[in-house]
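Usage

Read records sequentially. Each one opens with the input sequence:
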Amino acid sequence: MDRLRHRVRPQNKLRICDDDQLRQRFEEAEQAARSTRFVAEANPGDEQASQQADVAAAAYEEAKAALDAASDFLTFRALPRPVLEELIAQHPPTEQQTEDGAVFNPDTFPAALVAAASVDGMSREEAEELLNTWSAPDANAMWDAAWQVQQESRVELGKD
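and closes with the structure output:
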């Protein structure tokens, strides 16, 4: 039981990188590494395929290191269920939002959740500022990172 009580809560890491060329280089290197590895595994005796896979894997690691160095990361951790429920209760939907099916106030809850789930110590004010000043896709990605980790399950029903 002690082991179950001390499980590490799930985390999500959001990468923020404004260098489109680095991101493109990384994606291309990742695809090349994947495809050359597939060819090498499909042809175990082919030394040239194996060498190409090794070269592509090295290029991928180099591209990943460059992307990591140019990136900022925000990490979000799942909150204990009572904490999440209390946070939702602190941000009830308006009557109109309730009629529209909302279970929390979408105007106030996202910044509160982003701040509460932030491993990096982001304040509610900072979360609100970023959510309001970033582009819609970037703000949505931050919200999604904080919200999705709250929904992550790491248990399953077994069939023994």
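Summary fields computed downstream for this record:
- The mean pLDDT is 95.
- The beta strands are 11-16, 72-77.
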